[in-house]
Amino acid sequence: MPRLLILGATGPSGILLIREALRVYDQCIVVVYARSPEKLPEDLSSNNSVIVIKGDLTDREALAQALEGVDAVLSALGPGTFHPPGTPLAKAYEDIVDLMKERNVKRIVLLGTASIKDPKDKFSLTYASLIKGVATLAPRAYADIVAIGEVFRNKGEELDWTIVRVPILTNGDNTEVVAGYTGDGRIGTTLARKGFAAFAVEEVEGRAWVQERPLISSK
Question: Is the pTM of this model over 0.85?
Answer without folding.
Answer: yes
